[in-house]
Structure to design on (707 residues):
């Protein structure tokens, strides 16, 4: 065993040994290197560990949220009843409408010459299939609303929102800013998405064609 | 084989002396740097603290505005003091426990110098306004290689010692030291990649940031502190550590759970709920390693508490080990959502941090220095009174700081949850406690200065030579102890 042999230099110079040992009186007086005892782990403590582990499992189950990248409500897990209750479409719609305010404004009146109004617009309160088609695919180019001409772009929302959310924002817009029209079900959006969801943005004429088609 | 060594104490002494000779340069330079940066960090901390109750203090010096001096306090405390103190500890403990000389000491000494230059450049950069803005990783990127390269030397040296060890048994301290050398580089590199180098954005960046912020404490400072406690307590009192089985359980549960805890820093933030939930569970599960380590250290000490009277090393080590248990219990409970509703964004967090860092980590590093410096330099500590001052200032200053901040934080949190309480009233309420904090900081500073003087004297080349250890005792205490020893011996028979 190597450690039984002092360093050869040290043995070669015995006259140095005393001086070195004196200089290292601290090292000489100390206790030997620490060792391990082998007492067993207390059983009560192991039982305690078991309970900690059970608690951890419970807490993850109860407060895991919905395990998605966007669910921030820790009580939204399967165990919590809140999640299964249907969302109020007006509330959900108001939330989604935040995405529209930068153009159509919070009061739905748009900006003269740039963004058409949603208040008192035939496109909003009229045919719900056409409204859904606008939201899904967006609009490009010349577009006349209430006799006013606009030439800009309305973005497509099909990748941002699911059918329920689009139906909700439609319901919200149809019943805000002085509008009054029937709520929209998500089945309508689903059907339109199936029919034209793969197309690009509408022009005024292609939209009219789609609306006439039934 | 340790048994062989035990039967031949002469050989063990010789091997110790060889190890200490080889370690003297590298370890001393790391520990001297640690004390230097501790002083700087304390001053930066005092300035930050004063600015909170007296906003005009040094108010018109651009370099010392709160947003700059506060990160400098953190970085010099954690990297400057913590990093160097831990590196010195790591090298010396590993060499002692492997019974090997420290490899390439010149390289390690150079590493120590480079590290200091890195902290210095980085801190000046932050003072000049070049902070990256990422909390805990504020040092400008140009300083980081200067911190990483020396650490690479330490990692290599550590592995070299371990794989050329002359002992067959790997002691529990060594597990922690090996773990730190593996974990820390992974932590720093992935955290820098995910924050300052921009590998991820937004919320994911914040998660990476606090994953790192918590782990730099939990997977770097804490294991080094625990390794020191596992070494020093049995070493000084000359008894084996209570239970190998508990050591095992403590080590692995620490390794498994700590890493998950970081997201508790972001409770209430816009994170997916499950990430925070997992952080809370990771934090609560820390009860397992903490209780395990607590039992192991306490049971080892049982029956030897009278040594606390004289041994400076033991006093600091036991203080650190006890506060490890307390601050970790506090931290685990603090992570619960219901607790965070009150204490998040309050001074409570800061009370907890300093309870942990100055009550657990720092005392264990001091204990290492008190134990090892006489062996490394061949000198003894020059003044027992200075050691006593250091100890009492550390304990009292830390308690004043931690208790005032935790109490103020709870009250502050309750007031902030009350929508009718005017915000300015809440701020006014905390001001007296902020003054008490500055007072606590000053007491800590006094202790640091006492230690600095003693340290300065012990590194002088053989100016002061004593052949007996410096113990914190008067003659009366000494006689009392002798009687106590005799009594114990008689009981044994
Ligand atoms: C089991 C162990 C521990 C757990 C579960 C824990 C938990 C926590 C929690 C919940 C916070 C507050 C988060 C916030 O409100 O923002 C925190 C902050 C902190 N703790 Fe601990 N803690 C533990 C041990 C320690 C120890 C031993 C130390 C020191 C060595 C320490 C140092 C810190 C630091 C530096 C912060 C930073 C706070 C900040 O700047 O926001 N912790 N810890």
């Amino acid at each position: 065993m190597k450690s039984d042999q002092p360093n050869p230099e040290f043995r070669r110079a015995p006259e140095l040994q005393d001086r070195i040992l004196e200089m290292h009186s601290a090292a000489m007086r100390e206790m030997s290197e620490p060792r391990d005892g082998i007492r067993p782990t207390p059983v009560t403590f192991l039982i305690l560990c078991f309970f900690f582990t059970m608690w951890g499992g419970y807490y993850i189950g109860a407060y895991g949220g919905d395990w998605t990248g966007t669910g921030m409500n820790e009580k939204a897990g399967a165990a919590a009843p809140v999640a299964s209750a249907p969302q109020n479409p007006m509330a959900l719609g108001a939330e989604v409408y935040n995405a529209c305010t930068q153009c159509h404004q919070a009061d739905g009146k748009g900006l003269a010459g740039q963004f058409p109004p949603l208040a008192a617009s035939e496109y909003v309160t009229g045919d719900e299939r056409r409204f859904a088609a606008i939201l899904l695919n967006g609009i490009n180019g010349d577009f006349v609303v209430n006799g006013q001409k606009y030439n800009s772009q309305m973005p497509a929302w099909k990748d941002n929102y699911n059918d329920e959310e689009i139906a909700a924002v439609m319901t919200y817009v149809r019943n805000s800013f002085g509008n009054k029209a029937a709520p929209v079900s998500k089945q309508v959006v689903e059907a339109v998405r199936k029919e034209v969801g793969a197309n690009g943005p509408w022009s005024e004429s292609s939209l009219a064609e789609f609306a006439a088609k039934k | 084989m340790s048994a062989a060594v035990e039967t031949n104490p002469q050989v063990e002494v010789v091997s110790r002396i060889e190890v200490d000779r080889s370690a003297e340069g590298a370890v001393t330079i790391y520990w001297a740097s640690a004390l230097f940066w501790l002083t700087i960090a304390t001053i930066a901390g005092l300035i930050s603290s004063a600015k909170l109750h007296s906003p005009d203090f040094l108010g018109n010096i651009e370099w010392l505005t709160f947003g700059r001096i506060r990160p400098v306090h953190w970085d010099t405390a954690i990297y400057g003091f913590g990093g160097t103190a831990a590196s010195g500890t790591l090298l010396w403990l590993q060499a002692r426990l492997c019974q090997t000389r420290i490899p390439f000491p010149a390289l390690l000494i150079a590493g120590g110098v480079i590290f200091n230059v890195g902290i210095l450049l980085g801190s000046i950069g932050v003072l000049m306004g070049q902070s990256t803005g990422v909390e805990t990783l504020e040092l400008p990127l140009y300083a980081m290689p200067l911190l990483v390269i020396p650490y690479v030397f330490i990692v290599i040296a550590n592995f070299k010692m371990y794989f050329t060890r002359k002992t067959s048994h790997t002691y529990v301290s060594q597990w922690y030291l090996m773990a730190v050398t593996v974990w820390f580089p992974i932590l720093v590199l992935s955290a820098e990649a995910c924050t300052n180098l921009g590998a991820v954005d937004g919320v994911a960046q914040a998660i990476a940031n606090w994953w790192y912020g918590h782990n730099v404490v939990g997977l770097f400072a804490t294991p080094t502190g625990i390794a020191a406690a596992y070494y020093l307590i049995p070493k000084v009192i000359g008894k084996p550590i209570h239970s190998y089985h508990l050591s095992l359980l403590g080590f692995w549960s620490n390794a498994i759970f700590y890493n998950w805890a970081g997201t508790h820093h972001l409770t209430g933030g816009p994170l997916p709920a499950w990430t925070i939930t997992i952080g809370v569970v990771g934090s609560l599960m820390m009860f397992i390693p903490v209780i395990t380590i607590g039992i192991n250290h306490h049971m080892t000490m049982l029956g030897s508490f009278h040594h606390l009277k004289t041994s400076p090393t033991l006093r600091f080590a036991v203080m650190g080990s006890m506060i490890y248990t307390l601050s970790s219990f506090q931290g685990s409970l603090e992570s619960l959502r219901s607790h965070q509703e009150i204490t998040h964004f309050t001074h409570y967090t800061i009370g907890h941090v300093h309870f942990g860092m100055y009550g657990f980590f720092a005392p264990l590093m001091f204990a290492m220095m008190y134990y090892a410096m006489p062996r490394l330099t061949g000198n003894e500590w020059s003044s027992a009174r200075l050691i006593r001052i250091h100890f009492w200032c550390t304990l009292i200053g830390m308690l004043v700081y931690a208790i005032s901040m935790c109490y103020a934080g709870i009250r502050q949190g309750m007031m902030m949850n009350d929508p009718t309480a005017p915000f300015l009233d809440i701020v006014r309420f905390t001001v007296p406690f902020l003054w008490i904090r500055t007072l606590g900081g000053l007491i800590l500073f006094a202790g640091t200065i006492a230690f600095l003087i003693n340290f300065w004297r012990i590194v002088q080349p053989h100016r002061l030579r004593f052949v007996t250890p410096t113990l914190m005792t008067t003659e009366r205490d000494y006689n009392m102890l002798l009687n106590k020893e005799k009594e114990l011996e008689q009981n044994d028979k």
Observations:
- Chain B touches chain A through 68 residues (CB under 8 Å).
- Confidence is low (pLDDT under 50) at residues 1-7 of chain B.
- Chain B has 16 helices and no strands.
- The pocket of protoporphyrin IX containing FE is lined by residues B 217, 221-222, 261, 264-265, 283, 286, 290, 327-328, 331-332, 334-335, 344, 349, 352-353, 356-357, 360-361 (CB under 6 Å).
